[in-house]
Amino acid sequence: MKKTENLTVTVIAKQSNGAGNMLLTLAGAGTDRLPSFTPGAHIDVVIPGCGKRQYSLCSERADRQRYQICVRLDQLSTGGSRWLHQQLKVGDRLLISAPRNHFPLPDAPRTLLFAGGIGLTPLLLMAETLAERRAEFTLHLYLKRGDELAFAGRLAQLGERVVIHYSQEGDSLRRQVPAELTHPHHSVLVSCGPAGFTDHLHQLAAHYGWQAGQLHSERFSPVPTTQSVAGDRFEVEIASSGARYAIGADQSIADVLEAAGISIELSCGQGMCGACITGVLSGRPDHRDEVLSQQERAANDCIVLCCSRAHSPLLVLDL
Ligand code: FES
């Protein structure tokens, strides 16, 4: 697995963007163009003393001189969003990864976009792309109150294809189901938001006959589960060298390979960002991530090394 090169960028603007959100504009060094990206892509941001955090890109794709990310101040912050809100200044430099996209915009005759809070960030760019293509879509945005509205100008440009729901006014997904959600035909349902929002949306979708392959989502946090990285012991083989490593009952593949000095691309460490996806040449993975699609899981030809395990005694990794 080839490690993604990090980029140094400079913070050129820091603006409030709806209550609790900060819009950061990052410029590349010199006149070099930044790597291109597609809607749904994210970058890792290296936070001093905290490690990497992932943020969706929301800048206009045509602008290759700068990136924009929107950072919500997480009240349970382990330091990442708090540092970006409170310590980072205009003029500071940041280390970021090149964009990665494991949440691409699916192709379908009709697209329903459902955003919970700042889950709007990747979906806004998808909505703008669909509008450019003159495709059929609606963006439903769920907020608590009016002061939470971010990207007001860009949403206004999308006109009546944006429907904003305020739960303080009784318009929440739990109280009112948009009529469009009751018609799954020739459609995809793309959502981004907190885990509870996405889970409830998917329950409603299943009730109205949406199939798993029509649902595309990105969550802010992993699905709460009693199933941790722990499980039965198994072995992995590195295809290029033939070396084998035993993965203990409470170890991840990534932990064992890193301890053995094998270079692994890691970012979230929670099975959410896709940085550590690696090819599988033989064996049957036990997928425990949040990032692979149903089709990718069924193909069994790749695995997320930071959290997934094996159903077979041996996995041969394309490393
Ligand atoms: S490091 Fe993010 S999915 Fe493995």
Automatic annotation (TrEMBL):
Keywords noted in UniProt: 2Fe-2S, Flavoprotein, Iron, Iron-sulfur, Metal-binding, Oxidoreductase
FAD-binding FR-type domain location: 2-106
GO molecular function: 2 iron, 2 sulfur cluster binding; metal ion binding; oxidoreductase activity
The keyword Oxidoreductase is annotated on this UniProt entry: yes
Gene3D superfamilies in alphabetical order: 3.10.20.30, Nucleotide-binding domain of ferredoxin-NADP reductase (FNR) module (3.40.50.80), Translation factors (2.40.30.10)
Record keyword Isomerase present: no
Annotated ranges, domain 2Fe-2S ferredoxin-type: 234-319
Record Pfam families: Fer2
Superkingdom field: Bacteria
InterPro entries noted in UniProt: 2Fe-2S_ferredoxin-like_sf, 2Fe-2S_ferredoxin-type, 2Fe2S_fd_BS, Beta-grasp_dom_sf, FAD-bd_FR_type, FNR_nucleotide-bd, MRET, Riboflavin_synthase-like_b-brl
Signal sequence range: none
PANTHER family: CARNITINE MONOOXYGENASE REDUCTASE SUBUNIT, NADH OXIDOREDUCTASE HCR
Listed name of the protein: Oxidoreductase
Source organism of this protein record: Chimaeribacter californicus
